[in-house]
Amino acid sequence: MRIAIFLYSQESHIKPFLHLFDEMVAQGYDCTLYIKESHRKLFNNKNLHFQYYDEFFLENIIKFNKNLKNNDVSNTENKKVDYTQRLISFEAEYFFKIRCIKKYLNNCNDDFSCYDIIMYDYYLYFGSYLAQTYQKPSVSLICNIVPTGRQVNLNLKNSLLMNYLANLDDDLANEDAINCQLKKISENIEKKYNIKFDLLKNGFGDINIMCHSKEFYPYEFVEDELFFIGRQTDETCPVIKSFEKKSILVHFGQIDSKFEKELLLEIINQFKNANENVYIAIRNLNDWLPEPINDHEYPNHITIKPHLPFDKLITQVSLFICHGGTTGINEAVSNGVPALMIPTSGERYLTSKRFAEMGAGLMLDCSIQSLKSDLMVLVKQLKNDPAYGRNASYLGECLKKAVGSTSHAVKAVTKLLSKHD
Length: 421
Hints:
Blueprint: E1 2-6, H1 18-26, E2 30-35, E3 49-52, H2 55-66, H3 83-107, E4 117-121, H4 125-133, E5 138-142, H5 154-162, H6 175-193, E6 207-210, E7 226-228, E8 248-251, H7 258-270, E9 278-281, E10 302-305, H8 310-313, E11 319-322, H9 326-334, E12 339-341, H10 346-357, E13 361-363, H11 368-384, H12 386-402, H13 406-420
Parallel strand pairs: 1-2, 1-4, 2-3, 4-5, 5-6, 6-7, 8-9, 8-11, 9-10, 11-12, 12-13
Helix pairs in contact: 1-13, 2-3, 3-6, 5-10, 7-11, 9-12
């Protein structure tokens, strides 16, 4: 049984599924993974096969997703959303995206028809398009908390948030009109390209595999054909159970806007006078500054680096501060570490909100004013109340137990193929 697996070009979208790929090989799948060449080092299984994305694919199909300007929280903060204009813009973006996919398929030499199943990252629409084009069963890999239920009431807003189409505080007063416009846009794309299309659901497959446990998911998000495979832990890293350690890890991946730069600089400023050991990792902060940041400019208790040994540090700290990405939070709770989440996009807002509801951390509004007034207050609250650490440990145990369901997810893929045949 041959399966093509198309992965997003970020480690945080790959590492959570490594144990799934190992299980697929163990159950007899012939797996070919399409990846960015530099990510080959992440895989140790010698029975996996690899193909590497070319420059056109990386620049026009993968990077296109990362360049959606509505992702920038500074574009929506304190502004009323004009849904009509934003949805029209989103429609145009998909027209361009599909043209890029068609151009790539016309020029590449790969024979995708030889695969029995198409598996793909939820955020990589290419996989969904390919499955339709070759009439193959599809499997979506989902690393974030996303609304998979029907798009009504709360879930419509959450779907719009996740796609950077909604303001956090908008009450969706014109819900019927929005639904009507969503349907019209989907029909326009279907008609132009002769494909099935749902603007807010095109990332889902025939079945969907989540690198979480079911406990993480709000009830209203869950539908059938969801499989939760948890997170495989590295048993060589010690799990620190004590919450008396003072160190804090701040990890925001990389900065994608001037607004995010200002947020990070304010966080650094807030910790200057704190009695905490603070490790701050920001891959590209220096790219946004007139001069490279220098450790010597800050007190000895603050360490600022583009890269830090995250997997090791997360086992040594008592608090994790992040932008709300699921992979980082999963790492934290797997080590019993609560999180302070400052979500910088709609999808991260949904994740942060859920983890806060589960008592594994707190969420702070993504604004300079909130950082100035509330950051250190919430840091103190999280460090002084052991309940957050206990709740984080509980979620971490749920993740580990869910790993046992990985074989069931793979068997469901096999069953999907038999249904398709």
